[in-house]
Design goal:
Elements (H helix, E strand, L loop, with lengths): L1 H19 L2 H16 L16 H10 L2
Length: about 70
């Protein structure tokens, strides 16, 4: 949810930079987009002791079927 909120703020800032002709607002929007991108968490359990497969291989198999 936080990622969606930050990305929408970033898109709004970039759009406002075109509407108001103020380039620094677009820079703020890009900064917010980078913060959103790097603070997004991957909630996959790293310590999966119930399986013989590694977590990376499980993620690869799941993403292949989508």
């Amino acid at each position: 949810m936080k990622l969606l909120l930050l990305i929408s703020i970033a898109i709004g800032c970039v759009a406002l930079s075109f509407a108001w002709r103020e380039p620094w607002i677009g820079g703020v929007g890009l900064l917010v987009a980078f913060i959103a991108m790097f603070t997004d968490r991957d909630d996959i359990d790293v310590e999966d002791k119930r399986s013989y497969e590694t977590t990376k291989s499980v993620r690869n198999m799941r993403s292949r079927n989508r």
